[in-house]
């Protein structure tokens, strides 16, 4: 991956719907060259997909919580992660260092639904206990993080 690929990725992270012509203008290449590079980045697994960013409140998901999952001594982390993936309310799952094995982001319509979801989480085999932090407001989330794409930064490639 060279600097042009990094610039293409940075532009796509800002606007995943940009045309190849738009991307080409941004990085100084033809649309066909950008198309070829994006195809190679997709084939290599660097670009893993495209999605729409949706305001959770607009679709009725007004409550967000971060839930730490503390495993039992006999828990198999892969089994717990697989069970967490089965719950629609679990939007993200992070394996973490510390007392907990996972931190999950949960989105639900109401606090009552959060309580029901926490009950489902606690009934997963291998979950010993949970610790929940309710999000009061989101200052920012899902922003493009192009820090690793800056070649000329200190310690960069």
Architecture overview:
This protein is of the alpha+beta class. The protein is 34% helix and 19% strand. The protein has five helices and four strands, in the order αααβαββαβ. It has helices at residues 3-14, 20-27, 31-43, 77-85, 111-122, and strands spanning 63-71, 90-95, 102-108, 127-134. A four-stranded antiparallel β-sheet has the order 2-3-1-4, with helices on one face. Helix 1 (3-14) crosses helix 2 (20-27) and helix 2 crosses helix 3 (31-43). The mean pLDDT is 92.
Helix content: 25-40%
> Beta-sheet strand percentage?
15-25%
Structural class: alpha+beta
Order of helices and strands: HHHEHEEHE
Looking across the biggest beta sheet, what order are the strands in? 2-3-1-4
Oligomer: single chain
Total DSSP helices: 5
Described by the principal axes of the CA atoms, the overall outline is elongated
Radius of gyration: 20 Å
- Total strands: 4
* Poorly predicted ranges: none
**Biggest sheet overview:** 4 strands, antiparallel
Mean pLDDT: 92
């Amino acid at each position: 991956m060279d600097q042009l690929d990094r610039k293409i990725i940075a532009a796509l992270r800002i606007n995943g719907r940009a045309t190849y012509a738009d991307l080409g203008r941004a990085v100084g290449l033809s649309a066909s060259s950008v198309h070829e590079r994006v195809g190679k980045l997709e084939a290599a697994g660097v670009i893993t997909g495209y999605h729409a960013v949706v305001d959770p409140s607009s679709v009725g998901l007004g409550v967000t919580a971060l839930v730490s999952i503390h495993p039992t001594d006999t828990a198999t982390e892969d089994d717990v992660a697989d069970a967490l993936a089965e719950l629609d309310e679990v939007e993200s799952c992070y394996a973490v260092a510390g007392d907990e094995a996972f931190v999950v982001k949960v989105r639900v319509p109401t606090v009552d639904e959060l309580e029901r979801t926490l009950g489902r989480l606690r009934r997963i085999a291998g979950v010993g206990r949970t610790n929940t932090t309710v999000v009061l407001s989101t200052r920012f989330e899902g922003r493009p993080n192009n820090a690793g794409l800056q070649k000329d930064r200190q310690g960069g490639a």
